[in-house]
Design brief:
The protein has ten helices and eleven strands. By secondary structure, the chain is of the alpha/beta class. The protein has a single domain, classed as 3-Layer(aba) Sandwich (Rossmann fold). Strands 6-5-4-7-8-11-10 form a seven-stranded mixed beta sheet, sandwiched between helices. A four-stranded antiparallel beta sheet has the order 1-2-3-9, with no helix packed on it. A hairpin with a 7-residue loop joins strand 1 and strand 2. Helix 2 packs parallel to helix 3 and helix 3 runs parallel beside helix 4. The protein is globular and about 50 Å long. 39% of the residues are buried.
Length: 290
């Protein structure tokens, strides 16, 4: 693989293994590919860390508390987004639902919710939250195969920072298409390696998160990959808080300690530059059947 694609960067796994991985540039798609990629039966071991905050509700560190505060704010923005869609119903599937916070607030807003989360600990936390809200009006499974076998379809399918973790994106997108109603909306949020903060931090950019992130997308790659499966990109939205949080982690990786002032400055510059070129640290893509 490496003899066919140019090495763009070499990055380290700062969360679990301390191993190094190459990022290979795919010119045709304008995308980066993590190499080597762990085999599916090995990938789970790279998530076994208390620092992997999306699988916990941790508030131990200052960074954890910032993450949880931002998460609570953005949850309300996500619900406003899905409530703005004019679809035939209110069936929501959240893939990679983590500890279930988005499902919970969506449920409270009148959506019939379903989730998919492979991590058992996170899924258990999500189940407890949803059970408190509604003892029976939800489904929570380890993966989407359950829903494919049931032959059900959804008005909205969301993947908040999930697609970069999927071993075979094109096959997965085919499954998403089967699960999406004709008038449904697919939400895909991923980091953007074309952002200023990615360029600024280089190999220390926290959103590369190798090897858990197998793919690193640009606006071009998202449009091309989904269009192959006859799903068209209809709108792109920014995730403005991501530049600040990612910069906080990147400062820690780069200097072995946090530098809040530097992180805030980099995050702010990234967002200001993105006003002109829309290359925000993370982007939300809205897609529909072509």
């Amino acid at each position: 693989m490496e003899d066919k694609k140019q090495i763009y960067l070499t990055c380290r796994d700062y969360t679990v293994s301390r191993e190094e991985f190459n990022l290979l540039y795919d010119k045709d798609l304008d995308m980066l590919v993590t190499s080597p990629q762990p085999k599916p039966d090995q990938l789970g071991s790279y998530y076994e860390s208390e620092d992997y905050i999306s699988h916990t509700d941790s508030q131990k560190t200052f960074t954890d508390k910032i993450y949880q505060w931002v998460k609570n704010y953005t949850l309300q923005q996500k619900v406003k987004l899905i409530n703005s869609f004019r679809t035939s119903g209110k069936e929501l599937l959240d893939i990679g639902c983590g500890t279930g916070d988005f499902l919970k607030v969506s449920q409270e807003s009148g959506w019939k919710v379903s989730g998919a989360e492979p991590n058992e600990k996170a899924r258990s936390l999500a189940y407890d939250k949803l059970k408190l809200s509604d003892k029976k009006n939800f489904f929570l499974e380890s993966d989407i195969n359950f829903y494919l076998k049931k032959g059900v379809q959804f008005d909205v399918i969301s993947m908040w920072h999930v697609l970069e973790h999927v071993p075979d994106p094109e096959e997965y997108i085919s499954h998403l298409k089967q699960l999406l109603k004709n008038d449904g909306v697919l939400i895909v949020a991923v980091p953007n390696f074309r952002s200023f903060d990615a360029e600024h931090y280089g190999k220390f950019w926290a959103a590369y998160d190798v090897p858990r992130h197998l793919w690193h997308f640009s606006k071009t790659s998202i449009k091309k990959i989904f269009l192959k499966k006859e799903l068209k990109l209809v709108k792109i939205l920014p995730m403005k808080f991501d530049s600040f949080y990612v910069s906080m982690l990147s400062e820690k990786y780069k200097n072995n300690r946090g530098n809040l002032l530097s992180a805030f400055r980099t995050g702010l510059i990234s967002n200001l530059k993105a006003k002109k070129n829309f290359e925000y640290s993370s982007l939300i893509y809205l897609l529909k059947h072509a």
